[in-house]
Amino acid sequence: MTKPEKLKPTDSEMEILNILWDKGTATVRDIHEVLEKQKPSGYTTTLKLMQIMFEKGMLTREAQGKMHVYSAVIKREKAREQVVQKMIDTMFSGSASQLVMQALGNHTSSPKELEEIKAYLDKLSNKK
Question: What does CATH list as the number for 4-72?
Answer without folding.
Answer: 1.10.10.10
